[in-house]
């Protein structure tokens, strides 16, 4: 009974064709000719046609492993048959009698002889399978994205803790200065010794300096969050900065040798790990060392030092004995495409330092340059400690 019901559904399924098209101008003429030919064939033998635009449903093309479009696929009756290439109309004309014949033969089969999996062989279930493939790919992608976002959130949490700590120091110093001023200059407070004018000035100066430090930190935070909104992707992890420095220096050593430049390092063994994206930090080191090598004359010295001055940050410096950077350009060299006129004859695009700045800011660190013109430059950056 069930077999009969199934047979009737299957014998009712007509010849089914799937036409894959694309939007390339070069395909349009062929697609039109094929449509017209298929229109005429409708009077010859009944069939069902579905048109799929590969641009809109690429996963469906992938499902059928198509290597070229336009392509015409006979979905039902099985076995599946694909014709593709330049002369589709001629190929269809050739195959059409055989497709008709296979349909007739299929309709005359009894249920037992249907090829395995036949019941799935219709256009709608193929579309469902393809949709399932697409959905599972989407789920995979979303899972990956979720993991990355969780990592970013974790990074932000740690950075916020670090910045809160950084802000506390100048804030405490400013508060102490203000409280001392308040209690010691209060005319109603007869018990406290009055401050000398020199001391008052010093305390005011201290409070002002500390508020400036707070302001600078806030600017860093804001710029850091801007850096993260850009296209720069940071995948932070526990990184041994000393080891990374040695690796980069090893890779570049032939370049320094070519200019007889001497490399000195001061990298303590007990450095804490930093919380950073190792590939991005490598880019920063390569850029800074590359510049040191390029702008320092032959026989100069390049020194890489790492310091762990506060519990929160590690500080790295790349110093050279090159021409230095005039004071008025020290901020501008971090702008995109900015190069000193003096160096225009040398190779370069003026983007290395701006990239370094974006990378370091995305790690909520700072990057800056110190320089004594004609004596050399020291590029510094900080990175958060891993805890
Ligand atoms: P590029 O080196 O491709 O010009 P950068 O963004 O790396 O671009 O550097 C910007 C400019 O800063 C350089 O053109 C150069 O004038 C100056 N500069 C960078 N590093 C040094 C250095 N170590 N010594 C002297 N000048 C430098």
Automatic annotation (TrEMBL):
Keyword Transferase (UniProt): yes
Enzyme class: transferase
Residue positions, PTM Phosphohistidine: 165
EC number: 2.7.13.3
Coiled coil (UniProt feature): 132-159
Catalytic activity: ATP + protein L-histidine = ADP + protein N-phospho-L-histidine
Keywords, sorted A to Z: ATP-binding, Biological rhythms, Coiled coil, Kinase, Nucleotide-binding, Phosphoprotein, Transferase, Two-component regulatory system
Keyword Kinase among UniProt keywords: yes
UniProt cross-references to InterPro entries, sorted A to Z: HATPase_C_sf (IPR036890), HATPase_dom (IPR003594), His_kinase_dom (IPR005467), HisK_dim/P_dom (IPR003661), HisK_dim/P_sf (IPR036097), KaiB_domain (IPR011649), Kinase_SasA (IPR023527), Sensor_HK_Regulatory (IPR050736)
Recorded domain comment: The N-terminus interacts with KaiC, while the C-terminal histidine kinase domain autophosphorylates and is probably responsible for self-oligomerization. The N-terminal domain stimulates the C-terminus to autophosphorylate.
Subunit structure: Homooligomerizes. Interacts with KaiC. Participates in the KaiABC clock complex, whose core is composed of a KaiC homohexamer, 6 KaiB and up to 6 KaiA dimers. SasA and KaiB(fs) compete to bind to KaiC.
Protein name: Adaptive-response sensory-kinase SasA
Native source organism of the sequence: Aerosakkonema funiforme FACHB-1375
